[in-house]
Amino acid sequence: MKIAQIAPLMESVPPKFYGGTERIVSYLTEELVRQGHEVTLFASGDSRTSAELVACCDAALRLSPKGRDPVPCHVSMLEQVRRWAEAFDVLHFHVDVLHFPIIREFSRRTVTTLHGRLDLPDLARLYAMFDDIPLVSISDDQRRPMPPVNWLGTVYHGLPPGILPFREKASSYLAFLGRISPEKGPLAAIEIAARARMPLKIAAKIDAVDRSFWRESVEPQVLRNSNVEFIGEINERQKAEFLGNAAALLFPIDWPEPFGLVTIEAMACGTPVVAFNRGAVPEVIDDGVSGFIVKNIAEAVKAVHRVGDLDRARVRRTFEKRFTAERMCADYMAIYRSLTGDKQRSSRRNSYAGNIAGQATEPAA
């Protein structure tokens, strides 16, 4: 099958540091290639892939020193995708809603995975206008705020089994990994660790929009608590050590988390998760097996003292059963095959596909 994967341009595929969506796009793309499909990845030029790469900007936008405007870059990418749409059996979009107006004529050969929260103002009206576009959710809970739309299924994220190795024994610290923002709960994590009298290591990025929250709220708590260590953003190699050595991952979210990739990353290492009961948490964490689901800080403190009772090997087996890239890929392939587009297009697709590399325009400015 000829498949296009269309990724956001803010991070490379896979990301060098933080970036959940682009990481999942990478894992899915590589597994599709491994299974013998012809995959074209539309992404930033510094992406690394075994698929055919169409570079839609020279480098990922978030870390670019040039301060690039993401709108022209994404619009240019989508125009390239539109021009070459005939080359593919399936076009899989990961860019929220930007492409909706341009795919009407071939929407039956598309699928769009929604990676973000769907409870924001104006989204319901927007999705109601495009209620024919085939959509995939990353959890059932993610769908709750949506009007009636064309859901094809829910596909949970998955990781390659070997990318984060199992760690049988852990150190005595708690881990917080992700992004410094109010909804991710870094202040709650600090309080949980303080009450539990355990060290806390925080590995997180700080977006520009959250810098005042960091300076005014989180940083003072980090400086005030000698048991808290702020590490900053970490890469994949550092993540294996960071999560694998932790006694538990703290996930005290205060928002309807659509999935929570970090939770299955911890599980891959055998590290249990202590998570607040919000969003997709009950769909991902098996309470009492791969971690504990709690309602508040007091319950989280009690759970932290119980994580030693959990079998880290069983945590890893739960990951292997439910959250591998192979399982994710199988779920998406079932959706791809269910699409109802015109199937009598193979000769045209072959003609277009052979010209993609030669016709590539200059990377978006």
From TrEMBL:
Keywords: Plasmid
CDD domains: GT4_AviGT4-like
Highest taxon above the source species: Bacteria
PANTHER family: SULFOQUINOVOSYL TRANSFERASE SQD2
Domain Glycosyltransferase subfamily 4-like N-terminal: 18-119
Span of domain Glycosyl transferase family: 171-302
Designated name of the protein: Glycosyltransferase family 4 protein
Keyword Lipid biosynthesis: no
InterPro entries named in the record: Glyco_trans_1 (IPR001296), Glyco_trans_4-like_N (IPR028098), Glycosyltransferase_grp1 (IPR050194)
Pfam family, one: Glyco_transf_4
UniProt entry tagged with the keyword Signal: no
UniProt-annotated stretches for the region Disordered: 345-365
